[in-house]
Sequence to fold (479 residues):
Amino acid sequence: MKKLTILQLNDSHAYLEPHQEMFWEGGKKVYRKAGGFSRIAGYLNKLRQEKEGAILTLDCGDTFHGTYPAVHTKGEVMLPVLNALGLDAMTAHWEFAYGPEQFRKLTAALNYPMLAINIYDKQTDELVYNPYILKEVNGLKVGVIGIACNIVDKTMPPHFSKGLYFTLGNDELPGYIKKLKKEENADLIVLISHLGFPQNMKLLSEVPGVDVCLSSHTHYRTQQPIMQGNTIVIESGCHGSFLGRLDLTVKDGKITDFTHEMVEVSDDLPADAAVEKLVQEATAPFQEKLQQEVGQVTTHLDRNNILEATMDNFLLQSMISATGAELAFSNGWRYGAPIVPGPVTLNDLYNIIPMNPPVQTAEITGQELWQMLEENLERTFAPDAYNQLGGYVKRCLGLKAFIKIEAPKGTRIQKLFVDDEEVILSKNYKAAFVTEQGISKKYGTNRQESGIKAIDAMLQFLNNNSPVEVNLRGTFEAV
Fold:
């Protein structure tokens, strides 16, 4: 009988420092600071001492992207901090935002491997990364298999996947499980997967043999592990606000007992002084710029609602104000630390949209608008988890849609209004948007650059309207 502790870090989105986080307590949302890599390191160090090194620490990706310092340095600011954590392996998603070559450069500088059974070179059909590693921990042989996010070449900008193609990994996974069990004599199989929680649950229902699945991408907070057959599945929030901990008892290659904790990375955890110094060195060049106060808000801004969010309403209202458009669209991003009432800093704005893309405009017909929204609702709510390809529902402002979430593909919208008037299918509407995920190229005509970027649009809006109150408007109402 042997013991093993598995620690999960997922979807930290380059939040090096403590930040605001949203919690559900007492039947409502509350906000307080959480996260910070020095606290993460302190907890890991303490646990390694307690467990005498019988620990496997795994990162499920979305680690190198999400804040201004990370995006400004194309992920390189993260390297010293990550290399100080003593991680065992990772997989990826938003890391490809800097292009495959830059990500190869980043992974080459890590002191632990990047794993993916589902990323291939287009020219050679060869795997780009190692599919798995075999680690010996406390006398146990543990096979760790990686699956990267499969939507990189399907819904994200083309430069993310230049020269690569991504599969779901369901065809490849059984072979690697067999290889690890039969040829490598692995006692346990651990899957680190960035497919998303619903996708992983379906995958594991089809492919037996995984003992533990560390899920990511969807930012679920699994207060208790979910069992899919004999597989233990957990996912541990986002922004580095939580760590997933599994303490396993293993006998004859079987987990006979386990306990789980989703650890809040709070100020109750010990901070590691060496990593704190690395974090300060990493963020120092940006502090003066990012800590500028740029306005005030009177309401909480967050992204924790699937149909609509105050944070995105603020971004979209800024875009409409800057362009004079009737409608505004952005992607349903999940990441972005909350902003609490009071002063807003430039750092807060970059946390909303760290890429700072240009605001564009287009003319879109009512028919196209209807089709675009139906497409997005299917990508969000498809009954087949493998067809869920996005984040939250596309963020929209200026419209009102009454929807049946459970309805079949293409039939979810019951009624659609623009500025309180029922949409006219043949009419052109002026829309502002950011990124191809706001309005893809197959929709709209007369696409133009507005001459302003997203951050400047928000700065202008704050300058003209501060203090700003932002509320939910019921853009999508489930009926």
Notes: The chain has a mean pLDDT of 97. The first helix runs from residue 37 to 50. The radius of gyration is 22 Å.
